[in-house]
Fold these 3 entries.
Entry 1:
Amino acid sequence: LDVSMDTWNFISTCLVSLWLHRSYIYSAVAFGITVWIVIQFTTTRTKRKITEQVRTENKLVNGYATLQAKEVCVAGVKIFYGSQTGTAKRFAKGLAEAVVFLNLPVEVISMGDYDPDDRLLEETTSRNVCVFLVATYTDGQPAESAAWFCKWLEEAANDFRFGKSFLKGLRYAVFGLGNSVYVDHYNTVGRNTDRWLWMLGARRIMTRAEGDCNVAQSKHGSIEADFEAWKAKFLSRLQGLCRGEKKPCSGKCRKGKCKSSGKQSKESSDHEHGTSQYENTKTEELFETTSEEEADAEEAGGTNSVIDVEDLGSIMSHMKKAKVLLLRLMLNFVYQLVCFVYQLLQVKISCLFFGLFPGYKLIGSHSGVKLCRWTKSMLRGRGGCYKHTFYGIESHRCMEATPSLACANKCVFCWRHHTNPVGTEWQWKMDQPERILQEAIENHQSMIKQFKGVSGVKADRFEEAMTAKHCALSLVGEPIMYPEINRFVKLLHQHSISSFLVTNAQFPDEIRNLEPVTQLYVSVDASTKESLKRIDRPLFKDFWQRFLDSLKALSEKQQRTVYRLTLVKAWNVDELKAYADLIALGKPDFIEVKGVTYCGESSASNLTMANVPWHEEVVRFVQELADLIPNYEIACEHEHSNCLLIAHKKFKINGEWFTWIDYDRFQELVREHERSGGSTTFTAADYTARTPHWALFGSRERGFDPLDVRYQRKNKARDISGC
């Protein structure tokens, strides 16, 4: 007995010691992984150089160099500037005068007068060279005239719907203006502009340069001298492009040979071979050359070279699949380890999540808000989302938010690539709903304010957008997991904000206990146990019973209810009869059927564009499904979102559809319900409104509001739809 007690004491002492020193253990593991990654990068880079030499020889033999020479001819130069004090503008005019002497057309453009959403894509086929002279202003922010341009560029670079080759074909150079006295923000805007353009597939013609207003630190004694030195190199490079030179820079910026030789083709290869956007972004930040000064230092004979950002994409794309998989697994292990420690300490998990998704605004420990792209679209009179067509919401007044980042599913088509936490129960420090709503509104208004003065934004809609009227609780995660969801919904209604809540049908008790919302959605991503497990990948072992119980709970609701079907080609489009049975079980008021939105490549999913159904295929599926459910008919269509609405016939009154919502009437009804302590009830039929003709299925407009003007992208037809 004594021996066993001694053994137990020894084991318990070891375990306690390990727990007390866990931070050192985590650090050791992270350090080991870092060393492994560095070794892999070094060895792979060596192999890659040998491979590239062989490829270069083959290309020359096959006449590839001749074809490349034809591609690099220059049609003209466009010089974009963002200036607060006028320095960048002065530099732009000076550069333009120098370009004129090369007999090239040149245009000087203020970023404040240029709409990148409309026009930047044109530069991918124009054969122009685009120069960006951008100044860093207070706290690392761009000048006021460049704020919208930079904001658009950042969001596009981090939006999977644009893709990593969106600006493929655009050639550019960046010169940043800053002051090294402000160490934390020195030339931030120039560096960001360079990175975002590269992430979108644009091609550098030379290394980014940085001018320094601090004469004590300026490489050439002043920012003017820095610019003149860069200008001379740029003009030399431009002349080389005009002569048809293949190499993308001067030829002596990396240890006596061109650091970028063949680089542009490698960057293109990166995008074509599908290196993930997250990997590109993060690894570039680690290895990116910060300025031309580093290049010159190496040219002078330095021995410690910096891994260049353009080389990194090639390294990642040429790794063997096994090594890439192992790397991802190890990185994921570190991430999960950190998440575990954070959850044990009950601190903010959201800092881990939001760092991966620029554009999201953090609220407390577990909530967030983001500006929907349809909000931006409607601000500019370019049409609203499908909820505007189906239910009459004002998209520019809709706030997209969530009180819970966590989710109980890991769906194959998840927009967030499963970077949000998952769980089957609430296990994080809880913030009060009052705080969540207040900060959500404040952050939403802050994001709306960024559109003040932006080209195309309608003044009346901008003013309206400052007061949110709708809240889509569908940003990410499972909102109904939040323990105070009822209080949060009541607060929304007290602020006259309608509530559109989406749940993944894994929490039947919470659905039953939910207070009235404007419209309650349940995601029905499959109709059989096997396909649901394959598509949603739920965490609950009894997921199918929970799914069925959730649909039964939905049938008991008196307010508006919706099934949301996401069609994934070759996964769930052949189960019509089973879908009809589920509709009979849950008795929803409406059924939204939408083609899946491709979210880009991810190690967490093997979906491709081949899994995205054409709109005609979605229409055919809906027509066949409607034939199997006699109490329903096809009511509305939003072609732009690849989405249709099936509605219960009780919403068709005297031959007219009433799928829209009378939001003022709903607010009156919900206030009466709360004042009566829940004794006064109301139904979906009590707050309907007539659906306009343009929103109906079969209309000429196909769901596009005729009050707006549909914008068609030029040159490249890219589908970045979604909501």
Note: The longest helix spans residues 22-61.
Entry 2:
Amino acid sequence: GLERGAKNQFSTFSNFITTVNQKKEGIGNRNSPTQHVIPNIKNVRDLPPICLDVRQKQRISVDTLPQELKAPVPPEPSLPIRTKTVKDFQDDVEKAKSSGDWKAVHDFYSTTFDSFLEINAAFKKDTNSPFNTTEDSGINAKFVNVVYDALLNTPQDVQKSVLKGIINGLLQEWKGPRTKDDLRAYCILLQNPQFSNTSTYVIYAHLLRQIAALTEADHHFLVHWSKKISQKRFKQLVDRLLQFISLRLFPAKPEEFPPMVKCTWWIPSAAKVLSLFNAANSLISPPIISYTEFYNSTLDHIDLMEEYHNWQCYGNSHRFSFCQYPFIISIAAKKVIIQRDSEQQMISIARQSLVDKVSRRQKPDMNMLFLNMKVRRTHLVSDSLDELSRKRADLKKKLKVTFVGEAGLDMGGLTKEWFLLLIRQIFHPDYGMFTYHKDSHCHWFSSFKCDNYSEFRLVGALMGLAVYNSITLDIRFPPCCYKKLLSPPIVPCDHNTLVGICDVTLDDLFQIMPELAHGLSELLSYEGNVEEDFYSTFQVFQEEFGVIKSYNLKPNGDKIAVTNQNRKEYVQLYVDFLLNKTIYKQFAAFYYGFHSVCASYALLLLRPEEVEILVCGSPELDMSALQRSTQYEGYQKTDLTIRYFWDVVLGFSLDLQKKLLHFATGSDRVPVGGMADLNFKISKSETSTNWLPVAHTCFNQLCLPPYKNKKELKQKLIIGISNAEGFGLE
């Protein structure tokens, strides 16, 4: 906010405008680039409306256009000559601070921000150069930063003069397309720190509206220019936009803003501009800031399902929904959408089964409402795959697991146990479906050819069931897997369309086979003669069941030598061969299996990294966070037994902490919302202290006898959590 001067320096924008309106008689020719225009509030609000590009059931983003694409370039008007340098400006500020005379600084600010032409005259690196490319905005970023850093420490009349000048520029009557100087001015104005103050939000909203309404080609330039902004400034811009959205949704002082019905375009405009920064962020590797920095946690408190249904129902209209900009929605909020969407599908499928049964005059059975899995522990994989194969029509019903010969009733705990044991066995190297890479600590699909890939489909269905039933799995797939799983996010109607194929890079290979990727990286950077020293062709070799087989990366690849000129193509084809082509049938079966359960438009909202979090949860255990959120029944958190318990648990090794989590909850993974989402409870067991602790995994509940000392508690707890397989009834 603004730090100097009276606390209510900009009490409301309306008051400021009222004061300014008293000077209306001074208005001259409106088209003069440096003429000061004083608007009334009506003019401010009646700027051209923004037209949203809402695509049905697709996320809105800025399409990165080809570099050669240029917007129509209107003639640039000649700029005024301004010679002030960073050093000159800093000297002026220092003199003003020491003398108290801010006239020189005031004149600089009021002149510079009086029009878009003046902004360019002050901050353009070279006023004689057009700077019409995406590679260089031509903005003197250092000067912009110095001027804005000093602005908040100037007297209020200086700060008000800047805002008045910005209003001038926004009210200019535009004729024809925007020039690159106009785009530069927008880029500079967005960085104004005054827009962190709610009293400036009316002006800020109109700035955002004009930027949002620019052409796609203009947006293309702004995206590429934005990626050159420093990380600190970039994050400030994003945070300012997120704060603007949050405070418009939930204003601390509603009277500060116009009524919501009169400014429904505020949030859509801000979301569109935020999408430009999101696009810029995605163009850089690594990104400028984490994708999680775009999350707006305020949206966790709105009716997300209404947003989701609006997006599904009105996707082709101009009706706004945050689902059009999924990068703003947090993973916790997306999980809620997916859970509720899954629940609605479960209810719908169960209702249909009931109706079908009644229509055939058959007696309804409660079991028909569930996907009932009956498996033997000794034949876990074969029984599970048989059950899933036979009950494909029931995959979207609520999952219920029974272990043959055990009396446990599945209220959620047996399901978690089944997933954990099944995944552990399927991914064992001896099973042969997946290869474990020790260097990267992850699994990847075996490239061995076989006659039937149905088991891969069933593994995909298993992973889909976990997401559908909100179960986290201990699966170690590389990020590339989840990128392929969303390629495309909705199963295509045409079965001839390739699925699970995505653009892969050397970075993706590094995450799976780091040693091979390092070798290919060395090839790319080799300074000698590649053809003579490596003597390689566009042909690669793989061992399959003890037999070496050769594959051409392109037609007649065995006759094409790898040279300094074509080595990039060789590396790209090799990576594509390893991560797409050799495992295509395996991954396609896996893809169809996953989407046979998780067929939801909600998947369009997710990034690959978010799918991984939904499937696997987080491996990071914060037992202190668990302690803070734990509920007690029969105990108080100050009781001696509870203090002994947490002393012991916080001193456990990571392996023992995971065993405790598995013992009490049925999974050793942390859900999306963190430890607090476990709803972990410790209950007092009125049994003898000779007994071991007991867990109700369906309810994430640990029943703890009141052991007499810490040593006894630790001994009994370790025995209990280290021998925890099987269920019984009390």
Note: Residues 163 and 449 are 68 Å apart (CA to CA).
Entry 3:
Amino acid sequence: MGRTVTVATCALNQWALDFDGNLQRILRSIDIAKSKGARYRLGPELEICGYGCSDHYYESDTHLHSFQVLAKLLESPATQDIICDVGMPVLHRNVRYNCRVIFLNKKILLIRPKISLANAGNYRELRWFTPWNKARQVEEYFLPRIIQEVTEQETVPFGDAVLATKDTCLGAEICEELWAPNSPHIEMGLDGVEIFTNSSGSHHVLRKAHTRVDLVNSATAKNGGIYVLANQKGCDGDRLYYDGCAMISLNGETVAQGSQFSLDDVEVLVATLDLEDVRSYRAEISSRNLAASKVNPYPRVKVNFSLSCSDDVAVPTCMPIQWRHHSPEEEISLGPACWLWDYLRRSKQAGFLLPLSGGIDSSATACIVYSMCHQVCLAVRNGNAEVLADARRIVNDETYVPEDPREFCKRVFTTCYMASENSSQDTCLRAKLLAEQIGSYHINLNIDVAVKAVVGIFSMVTGRTPRFAAYGGNSRENLALQNVQARIRMVLAYLFAQLTLWTRGIAGGLLVLGSANVDESLRGYLTKYDCSSADINPIGGISKTDLKNFIQYCIENFQLTALRSIMSAPPTAELEPLVDGQVAQTDEVDMGMTYAELSIYGKLRKIAKAGPYSMFCKLINMWKEICTPREVASKVKHFFRMYSMNRHKMTTLTPSYHAENYSPDDNRFDLRPFLYNTTWSWQFRCIDKQVNAL
């Protein structure tokens, strides 16, 4: 009688529509799983085509190529004698489903469509797929000819069923179903399913990993069982970073943990577990057994195969481990760095260019690139041949080996301090010192000639010369002169990104990095088409508060002492004239609110779904010790005026790494108008009425 089963799960760095690469990564994961003795292998959600195909799911080509890859998998010797569970879109009776295709030895056992679709935040699955609403029902699915020729099957079961092997029973969940209040694993567990699987396409959000881990462990804590979770990892073509964390849990405890951030394209987790542990755990839960006696049974697909061996008494099994979570500062150091590496190698560019101002935001961006260089050198040191090959292609040197992060940084990272007559010597020195410590190729330039030329054209045409407020100009003149400086910096950033390597006799171009944080985007405290406009932005989803903590982390972990003076300096745009050689302009004064307040406004607006009146009602209690109701009303009104006046800027926001659930990203996460009635007359009257009553 078999007791122990060996199962494998994985985290794969799949890329949307990269059918060749996706196939190779799937096959490698199966090879590794088999080499470690696994009899079942689980992969991420929609791994064949890549999760992030978006509207390409509408195209028949995507379905055709997915089936072509499936045929290759079925034919491969690697997939023999192991149950393979892969994800792909399937069209059944002209309805598109997000499916698991489970097969063994060239025979498809079951196509299991997703029941609960993810349709909030960054997810739009209901746009492309339909949920399977026929609980515990299966239908015949007629296989396309390309698959029939391999499997010699005409039809296969399609629907909500479980697999019954000779020694156990397996049931599948797909990503969102774990998060649903009526998760399938509840009823499946009551019906005798002992191994639950979950293929996910779950992305990184700061401080989120523990939620996923808790859900997996709680799934088997109440009901007993083995839970196997796979996830995608990496940047598969957009703003999200899928953060791996493949795991295996037994009876409420983690027994295998995968990495959350790494440059390994294929990571396989294998665990050997005792089925008798599940059965004995369930035996004493009387409430579970009473419910199980009344459960509506699932259709079972019988599989003439065992996950265990007949003589396995002496086989060692895995023991529970303590899950190790990253701190938020570590998450910022690692997640965006891995995302940048994927973007760099897949875009086939030669590196990055960053306008480095000497402030916290651009310095944090520089530190993330430096962390990326650390990760590359570490991966090469650990024998990652793919990372080495990518690094050699990026630097255009077939013999190169990245060993020192500073040296590698010099090759792939250019920083540029763009001074004006309004820049202080302090920020210039801070930028220069940080560039020296991380090793970037650093450029100092002055933009005054270009600024004067642009303003000169305006003066020549109109006969009027705008002045800064410090010299007697009004607010319109003052803002326009600041915007000219900011926009010229963007133009110069792209010019230097295209031609800097050319001047150095090096092939290729550079990706321009932006460095506007999530709070500034929310408030609109940026010039449209300035240096916030870039190719990508690794900190666009991160708050100023978290960035400050990350800077402190870099001081301690990377020994970047130049960051100390950057941390202590007040944030400033340096776009207005200096006073006695010193910066007179500061961000928080310009914005009329602090960064700490902005984070609170952002979380209430997006996560708590609060409009002006609800935000006021919540804040009069949150801030009752520090503000009167009238002061709270004034702050809330100011925020909503500024937010609505500047919302149009979000339509051109640089694609940013998604890290916060209060991101104002207009692309698909935070869908709002960009032309508001900025008086908010009705809403503000409600606030005023409440203030007067209080």
Note: The CA atoms of residues 440 and 574 lie 23 Å apart.
